[in-house]
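As promised in the previous annual report, we have extended the structural survey to additional targets. Below is the entry for PhnA domain-containing protein.
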Amino acid sequence: MTCPLCTTENTLLIETPVPGGPDGASIEICAACADPDTPPDHFRPLASTMWSEDPALQVLAARILKRLDTDWARDLAEQLYLDDETRAWADNAPQGTEHKDSNGVPLATGDTVVLIKDLNVKGAGFTAKRGTAVHRISLVPDNPAHIEGRVEGQRIVILTEFVKKR
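The corresponding C-alpha coordinate record, generated without further manual editing, is:
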Protein backbone atom coordinates (compact mmCIF):
# COMPACT_ATOMS: atom_id res chain seq x y z
CA MET A 1 0.00 0.00 0.00
CA THR A 2 1.07 3.59 -0.61
CA CYS A 3 0.45 6.35 1.92
CA PRO A 4 -1.66 9.09 0.28
CA LEU A 5 0.08 11.84 2.29
CA CYS A 6 3.79 11.05 2.03
CA THR A 7 3.68 8.58 -0.89
CA THR A 8 5.72 5.99 1.04
CA GLU A 9 5.23 2.66 -0.73
CA ASN A 10 4.80 -0.82 0.74
CA THR A 11 3.77 0.40 4.17
CA LEU A 12 1.05 -0.60 6.60
CA LEU A 13 -1.74 1.97 6.59
CA ILE A 14 -3.66 3.05 9.70
CA GLU A 15 -7.29 4.20 9.56
CA THR A 16 -7.18 7.77 10.91
CA PRO A 17 -10.30 9.84 11.66
CA VAL A 18 -10.48 13.38 10.26
CA PRO A 19 -12.66 15.17 12.84
CA GLY A 20 -14.72 18.28 12.32
CA GLY A 21 -16.38 17.16 9.09
CA PRO A 22 -18.80 14.48 7.97
CA ASP A 23 -19.37 11.73 10.54
CA GLY A 24 -17.07 8.82 10.00
CA ALA A 25 -14.68 10.76 7.74
CA SER A 26 -11.33 9.02 7.83
CA ILE A 27 -8.29 8.29 5.72
CA GLU A 28 -5.69 5.53 5.76
CA ILE A 29 -2.16 6.88 6.34
CA CYS A 30 1.18 5.38 7.36
CA ALA A 31 2.33 5.26 10.98
CA ALA A 32 4.94 7.98 10.37
CA CYS A 33 2.27 10.41 9.10
CA ALA A 34 0.05 9.59 12.08
CA ASP A 35 2.87 10.19 14.59
CA PRO A 36 3.04 13.83 15.76
CA ASP A 37 6.79 13.40 16.41
CA THR A 38 7.61 12.72 12.76
CA PRO A 39 10.17 15.23 11.42
CA PRO A 40 8.72 17.92 9.14
CA ASP A 41 10.76 16.81 6.09
CA HIS A 42 8.76 13.56 6.01
CA PHE A 43 5.82 15.66 4.78
CA ARG A 44 7.58 17.28 1.80
CA PRO A 45 5.51 15.15 -0.64
CA LEU A 46 2.48 17.20 0.47
CA ALA A 47 3.57 19.62 -2.26
CA SER A 48 1.88 17.27 -4.71
CA THR A 49 -0.52 15.17 -2.61
CA MET A 50 -2.30 18.24 -1.19
CA TRP A 51 -3.94 18.64 -4.62
CA SER A 52 -5.87 15.37 -4.27
CA GLU A 53 -9.59 15.46 -5.03
CA ASP A 54 -10.35 13.61 -1.77
CA PRO A 55 -11.64 16.25 0.70
CA ALA A 56 -10.48 14.26 3.76
CA LEU A 57 -6.94 14.15 2.33
CA GLN A 58 -7.06 17.88 1.54
CA VAL A 59 -8.19 18.66 5.10
CA LEU A 60 -5.49 16.48 6.66
CA ALA A 61 -2.83 18.05 4.42
CA ALA A 62 -4.01 21.56 5.35
CA ARG A 63 -3.92 20.75 9.07
CA ILE A 64 -0.46 19.20 8.87
CA LEU A 65 0.92 22.16 6.91
CA LYS A 66 -0.55 24.54 9.48
CA ARG A 67 1.06 22.54 12.32
CA LEU A 68 4.55 22.38 10.79
CA ASP A 69 6.82 25.28 11.66
CA THR A 70 8.94 25.51 8.50
CA ASP A 71 9.16 28.01 5.67
CA TRP A 72 8.32 25.44 2.99
CA ALA A 73 5.20 24.30 4.89
CA ARG A 74 3.99 27.90 5.28
CA ASP A 75 4.54 28.46 1.55
CA LEU A 76 2.57 25.34 0.66
CA ALA A 77 -0.24 26.28 3.06
CA GLU A 78 -0.56 29.66 1.33
CA GLN A 79 -0.73 27.95 -2.09
CA LEU A 80 -3.35 25.38 -1.07
CA TYR A 81 -6.78 26.17 -2.47
CA LEU A 82 -9.78 24.60 -0.78
CA ASP A 83 -13.42 25.21 -1.68
CA ASP A 84 -15.47 26.98 1.02
CA GLU A 85 -16.93 23.79 2.48
CA THR A 86 -13.57 22.00 2.66
CA ARG A 87 -11.85 25.12 4.08
CA ALA A 88 -14.52 25.31 6.82
CA TRP A 89 -13.85 21.62 7.62
CA ALA A 90 -10.07 22.17 7.72
CA ASP A 91 -10.52 25.18 9.99
CA ASN A 92 -13.00 23.25 12.14
CA ALA A 93 -10.34 21.19 13.85
CA PRO A 94 -11.76 20.44 17.27
CA GLN A 95 -10.68 23.51 19.23
CA GLY A 96 -13.08 23.36 22.15
CA THR A 97 -11.23 20.47 23.68
CA GLU A 98 -12.05 19.09 27.06
CA HIS A 99 -8.37 18.23 27.47
CA LYS A 100 -6.99 20.60 30.09
CA ASP A 101 -3.70 20.62 31.97
CA SER A 102 -3.38 20.63 35.76
CA ASN A 103 -4.06 24.39 35.80
CA GLY A 104 -7.18 24.17 33.62
CA VAL A 105 -5.44 25.49 30.49
CA PRO A 106 -6.86 23.89 27.29
CA LEU A 107 -4.52 21.51 25.48
CA ALA A 108 -4.35 20.99 21.72
CA THR A 109 -2.62 18.46 19.48
CA GLY A 110 0.97 19.55 18.91
CA ASP A 111 1.34 21.40 22.21
CA THR A 112 4.34 21.00 24.49
CA VAL A 113 3.70 20.09 28.11
CA VAL A 114 5.93 19.62 31.15
CA LEU A 115 5.49 16.86 33.72
CA ILE A 116 4.72 18.24 37.18
CA LYS A 117 5.64 15.06 39.09
CA ASP A 118 7.69 11.91 38.62
CA LEU A 119 5.64 9.26 36.83
CA ASN A 120 6.36 5.53 36.98
CA VAL A 121 5.81 4.30 33.41
CA LYS A 122 4.26 0.86 33.71
CA GLY A 123 5.53 -1.72 31.26
CA ALA A 124 8.43 0.45 30.09
CA GLY A 125 10.66 0.09 33.13
CA PHE A 126 11.53 3.74 33.73
CA THR A 127 10.33 6.80 35.60
CA ALA A 128 9.48 9.95 33.67
CA LYS A 129 11.02 12.71 35.77
CA ARG A 130 9.32 15.90 36.90
CA GLY A 131 10.22 18.79 34.58
CA THR A 132 10.49 16.57 31.49
CA ALA A 133 9.14 18.37 28.41
CA VAL A 134 6.84 16.32 26.19
CA HIS A 135 6.73 17.87 22.71
CA ARG A 136 3.98 17.60 20.08
CA ILE A 137 1.42 15.77 22.18
CA SER A 138 -1.63 13.97 20.82
CA LEU A 139 -5.03 14.12 22.45
CA VAL A 140 -6.80 10.84 23.18
CA PRO A 141 -10.14 11.49 21.42
CA ASP A 142 -12.44 9.55 23.71
CA ASN A 143 -10.86 10.47 27.04
CA PRO A 144 -10.19 14.12 27.99
CA ALA A 145 -8.09 12.96 30.95
CA HIS A 146 -5.46 11.34 28.67
CA ILE A 147 -2.85 12.64 26.24
CA GLU A 148 -0.09 10.79 24.40
CA GLY A 149 3.51 11.79 23.92
CA ARG A 150 7.07 10.54 23.68
CA VAL A 151 9.24 10.29 26.78
CA GLU A 152 12.69 8.69 26.51
CA GLY A 153 11.80 7.46 23.02
CA GLN A 154 8.68 5.63 24.22
CA ARG A 155 5.17 6.66 23.23
CA ILE A 156 3.15 6.75 26.46
CA VAL A 157 -0.27 7.81 27.71
CA ILE A 158 -0.15 10.56 30.32
CA LEU A 159 -2.90 11.79 32.62
CA THR A 160 -3.57 15.50 32.02
CA GLU A 161 -3.63 16.14 35.77
CA PHE A 162 0.17 15.54 35.82
CA VAL A 163 1.14 18.06 33.11
CA LYS A 164 1.19 21.79 32.59
CA LYS A 165 1.21 23.51 29.23
CA ARG A 166 4.48 25.16 28.34
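Strands lie at 13-17, 26-30, 113-115, 119-121, 126-128, 133-134, 138-139, 146-151, 154-159, 163-165. The first strand starts at residue 13 and ends at 17. These points will be discussed at the next consortium meeting with the crystallography subgroup.
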